[in-house]
């Protein structure tokens, strides 16, 4: 059966605007509507046949490439055999995938037993990690970083520090800590980790009961505007949080799966081993899937009650996930993220030399951003220039992402098959866009 779909641009926009609820309708990035019809690896085509380089990676969901043939084939093969199998029964695909995911976790002495709980999405995984940490430690208070984004569910919003994402009705028991931003952090430029670690201690003593359940950290903040945790920060945070009875929870929803170039998991750059790791997005290369990977003993207390994610461990999504892990190896994806990311970073630095509107260039691997400021001395965020460049690069066939607490960053998180030729194209498109302002 073929469903009739009217692909006309204006009709699609009208239908969306008429029938989407306001809560979902607002979130459109470009001034004029855009309808994508096809994707292949790092490229997208709109309904009029125009080609774009996708530096947004459809919100970092596309890890190994749009409609990667091996991922699609694995998922389709599974969907045709048995599309869904509830987690109450045994199925080999999620079981294999759990084993394979656990094997990607650090285990230097071989004494950590990693276990997996599959969810539908990242925010479900975040919610679960919150509950797991609270159940295991018996403590309620959580720490999170200002300028962190952890998802749209009420619980995930409660640890999200960006006001634009926070709605009424969030649960409490969350204390926010200043983000160790090496460009615009409260302790000034390149202040390192130490003053921010002192802040964690002060926050535990002043804004919590003194006993905490855990702290959520993204090794590289995504929606926060690509904020890398400085060397020693995650390790130092783990020490302080554990001393107060809590756990280190790494949110690798954006930074995981080799995106930072040097490691499979972003936190590995600091040599720290978290107690719980949350992942989603790139795990399924566009198929809906999330997971919590935890030390076995930390998940154990949750056996007392039911925690059932209807589509958690869905075999179709898990087949896609298994194929993603395979493609990461076969296509040398992490190495590509490292080398192509380094080349792109260099070109972004060159643009900063040329255009004073660019206040900062940062990130690693294929997790990069430029931040626009009105004045390099005051660092006043410049969302207007950011929006203008964003719109202008569309004309050059480049899809970027506005992000950061002030919407003053252009984030680049493409499918990790981006090539060196694409880097030239992106550089030239940005150059033209800044030049046209
Ligand atoms: C770091 C981080 N954590 C959690 C989430 C929530 O994931 P999801 O949108 O799949 O619920 C996101 C989503 O963007 C994210 O970027």
| pLDDT < 50 runs, ≥5 residues | none
What's the number of structural domains?
2
Bound molecules: pyridoxal-5'-phosphate
CATH topology of the largest domain: Aspartate Aminotransferase, domain 2
- How far apart the termini lie comes to 49 Å
Could you report the average pLDDT, rounded to the nearest whole number?
A: 96
Beta fraction: 15-25%
The Cα radius of gyration reads: 21 Å
CATH superfamily caption of the largest domain: Type I PLP-dependent aspartate aminotransferase-like (Major domain)
Fraction of helical residues: 25-40%
What CATH architecture of the largest domain do you see?
A: 3-Layer(aba) Sandwich
Largest sheet: spatial strand order: 4-12-11-10-7-5-6
Largest sheet: 7 strands, mixed
Q: Supply the helix-strand structural class.
A: alpha/beta
Task: Please report the first level of CATH classification, the CATH class of the largest domain.
Answer: Alpha Beta
Give the number of helices. Answer: 14
Shape assignment: globular
Number of strand segments: 17
Question: Helices, strands, pairings?
Answer:
Blueprint: H1 9-19, H2 22-25, E1 36-40, E2 43-46, E3 51-54, H3 57-60, H4 69-81, H5 92-102, E4 114-119, H6 122-137, E5 141-145, H7 154-158, E6 174-177, H8 194-207, E7 212-217, E8 220-221, E9 227-228, H9 233-243, E10 247-251, E11 276-279, E12 290-295, H10 296-299, H11 315-330, H12 333-354, E13 358-364, E14 367-372, H13 383-395, E15 398-399, E16 401-403, E17 409-412, H14 420-435
Parallel strand pairs: 3-15, 5-6, 5-7, 7-10, 10-11
Antiparallel strand pairs: 1-2, 2-3, 4-12, 8-9, 11-12, 13-14, 14-17, 16-17
Helix pairs in contact: 4-11, 5-11, 8-9, 12-14, 13-14
The chain binds pyridoxal-5'-phosphate (PLP).
Pyridoxal-5'-phosphate (PLP) is lined by residues 121-123, 126, 149-151, 218, 222-223, 251, 253-254, 280, 290.
């Amino acid at each position: 059966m073929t469903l009739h779909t009217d692909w006309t641009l204006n009709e699609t926009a009208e239908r969306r605007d008429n029938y989407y609820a306001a809560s979902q309708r607002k979130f459109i990035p470009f001034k004029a509507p855009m309808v994508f019809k096809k994707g292949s690896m790092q490229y997208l085509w709109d309904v009029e046949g125009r080609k774009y380089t996708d530096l947004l990676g459809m919100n970092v969901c596309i890890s190994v490439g749009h409609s990667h043939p091996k991922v699609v084939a694995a998922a389709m093969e599974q969907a045709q055999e048995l599309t869904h199998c509830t987690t109450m029964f045994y199925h080999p695909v999620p079981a294999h995938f759990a084993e394979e995911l656990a094997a990607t976790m650090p285990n230097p002495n071989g004494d950590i037993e990693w276990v997996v709980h599959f969810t539908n999405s990242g925010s479900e995984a975040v919610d679960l990690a919150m509950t797991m940490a609270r159940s295991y430690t018996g403590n309620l208070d959580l720490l999170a970083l200002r300028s962190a984004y952890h998802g749209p569910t009420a619980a995930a919003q409660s640890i999200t520090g960006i006001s634009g994402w926070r709605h009424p009705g969030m649960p409490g028991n969350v204390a926010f800590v200043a983000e160790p931003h090496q460009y615009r952090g409260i302790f000034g430029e390149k202040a390192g980790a130490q003053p921010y670690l002192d802040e964690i201690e002060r926050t535990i003593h002043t804004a919590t009961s003194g006993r905490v359940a855990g702290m959520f950290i993204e090794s590289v903040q995504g929606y926060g505007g690509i904020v890398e945790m400085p060397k020693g920060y995650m390790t130092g945070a783990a020490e302080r949080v554990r001393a107060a009875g809590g756990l280190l929870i790494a949110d690798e929803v954006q930074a995981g799966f080799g995106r930072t170039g040097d490691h499979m998991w972003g936190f590995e750059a600091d040599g720290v081993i978290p107690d719980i790791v949350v992942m989603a997005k790139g795990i399924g290369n566009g198929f809906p899937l999330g997971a919590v990977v935890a030390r076995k003993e930390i998940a154990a207390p949750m056996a007392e009650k039911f925690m059932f994610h209807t589509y958690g461990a869905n075999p179709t999504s898990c087949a896609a996930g298994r194929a993603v892990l395979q493609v990461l190896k076969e296509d040398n994806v992490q190495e590509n993220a490292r080398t192509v990311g380094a080349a792109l970073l260099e070109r972004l630095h060159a643009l900063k030399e040329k255009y004073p509107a660019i206040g900062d260039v940062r990130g690693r691997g294929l997790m990069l951003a430029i931040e626009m400021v009105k004045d390099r001395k005051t660092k006043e965020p410049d969302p207007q220039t950011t929006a203008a460049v964003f719109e202008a690069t569309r004309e050059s066939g480049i899809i970027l992402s506005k992000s950061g607490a002030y919407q003053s960053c252009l984030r680049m998180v493409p499918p990790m098959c981006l090539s060196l030729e694409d880097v030239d194209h992106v550089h030239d498109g940005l150059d033209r866009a800044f030049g046209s302002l």
